[in-house]
Write a structure and sequence with these properties.
About 40% of the residues lie in helices and about 10% in strands. The protein has 16 helices and twelve strands. The protein is elongated and about 110 Å long.
């Protein structure tokens, strides 16, 4: 059978993971039967290396009665992992009780777990056993562990260390034999540092940690999961689903799935309902999937049509190193703020010519411009060769020998403090230097 290769690299990439998908039967869709890969183990679908490592970790945890801490993103399947640990353990014949502590008001979590006696709080109309008693001999799964208040955390620590619980409002201790499997999508160590979670409880639960990989790190499982959910929803709803178009599969594999497997299941369920032909196309999937693809296509177009940079325009030869050194590391030219910008330019040219003893070529090198620029600018200002030097001073009046500066010499232009007589002054401002 021919294959279609979809290349995708790492977890951090937003491109589809490396997949080999069967070719379409009639050129329009990939049948569900061609997307099924591997066996379903404990309700876990896929053949990725990340999933295999997770399953190995589950088998190891099932061999003991140590408390287990499952960490992973929302919707990644933490309860499925907890159930798998229970099914593989020697407690599999006893009850598996799951409690989402995050869905219970904080003031009622202790009562939910440990029970209470009649009249212990408003609404306690009779004695009630908690979930610890209900799960006695089996496994108690505590999801969203990080939402527990400090009082409940103390009770949980006692249950772990002494294997006893105390119902709310009672002084009686009840022995229990329960294995705790807890889960969280937050960083408990950060919660410990922030003072929101007990440190002793954290290290008591950390005896065996199982990280659940997010769906974006096992993209090669997405087509199989999509086919699994499509078949399940179609069977429950009495519909017929034939398969997915290549574009739909590409969109499914390209999306990052922040809600993980739960979000994928919801997206496929919607697509099954919207498809009237039994073939799921990208139009049947949530708009956010195609939006990601279109944004990526737009980026590709921009890159593909980006203009090639034009070749650099011809420039005049730069001055040698000694001249650049003289210009860049010499004394700073200080200008009064009373001097207009145009006047400053003219003064700089004139003073540089003075320093260069009237050598226009040398002045042009120091200023990094052409000789023609100097001539044109001074001519524009009505300054001819006879007025090339500021204030009418010529080379004979300079306090330096009338010789051309030595190569490598540091040239220190003088401070310019006033505009030429022909340039009107601006209103006085506090003096500053540039």
């Amino acid at each position: 059978m021919s294959t279609t290769l979809i290349n995708t690299p790492s977890e951090s990439s937003t491109q589809p993971a490396a997949l080999v998908m069967p070719a379409t039967v009639d050129g329009t869709f990939v049948p569900l039967s061609s997307l099924r890969r591997g066996a379903t183990v404990w309700g876990m679908v896929g053949v990725s290396e990340a999933l295999r490592k997770l399953q190995d970790r589950i088998r190891s945890a099932a061999t003991s009665d140590l408390s287990v801490l499952i960490i992973g993103d929302t919707g990644s399947g933490k309860e499925l992992v907890a159930n798998a640990i229970h099914q593989e353990s020697r407690r599999s014949q006893q009850r598996f009780v799951a409690v989402n502590t995050g869905a219970i008001p904080r003031e009622l979590v202790a009562s939910e777990l440990f029970g209470h006696v009649k009249g212990s709080f408003t609404g306690a109309l009779k004695d009630r056993d908690g979930r610890f008693v209900e799960a006695d001999g089996g496994t108690l799964f505590l999801d969203e562990l990080g939402t527990m208040d400090s009082r409940t955390q103390i009770g949980l620590l006692r249950a772990l260390e002494q294997r006893v619980i105390q119902p709310v409002g009672s002084s009686r201790e009840i022995p229990v034999n329960v294995r705790i499997v807890a889960a969280t999508n937050c960083n408990l160590l950060n919660e410990v540092k922030a003072g929101n979670f007990r440190e002793d409880l954290y290290y008591r639960l950390e005896s065996f940690v199982i990280p659940v990989p997010p769906l974006r790190s096992r993209r090669e499982d997405i087509p199989t999961l999509a086919a699994h959910f499509a078949e399940k929803v179609a069977l429950e709803d009495g519909r017929e689903i034939k398969g997915f178009t290549p574009q739909a599969l590409h969109d499914l594999c390209s999306y990052d799935w922040p809600g993980n497997v739960r979000e994928l299941r919801n997206a496929v369920s919607q697509a099954v309902i919207l498809s009237s032909t039994g073939i799921i196309d990208s139009s049947h999937l949530p708009d956010k999937l195609s939006a990601v693809r279109k944004a990526r296509e737009t980026e590709n177009v921009v890159i593909a049509t980006a203009p090639v940079p034009a070749p650099a325009a011809a420039v005049l030869p730069r001055p040698d190193a000694s001249v650049r050194s003289a210009r860049l590391s010499g004394a700073q030219i200080q200008l009064s703020l009373e001097t207009g910008l145009d006047a400053m330019v003219v003064q700089i040219m004139q003073r540089t010519l003075e320093v260069c003893n009237g050598n226009v070529t040398r002045a042009a090198q120091i200023l990094g411009i052409s000789r023609k620029t100097i001539y044109n600018r001074l001519r524009t200002e009505g300054i001819g060769k006879d007025r090339m030097f500021a204030d009418g001073d010529g080379p004979e009046n300079l306090p330096v020998p009338v010789t051309q500066p030595q190569a490598g010499a540091v040239i220190a232009p003088p401070v310019l403090t006033a505009p030429p007589a022909s340039v009107p002054s601006v209103p006085h401002q506090p003096e500053n230097t540039v």
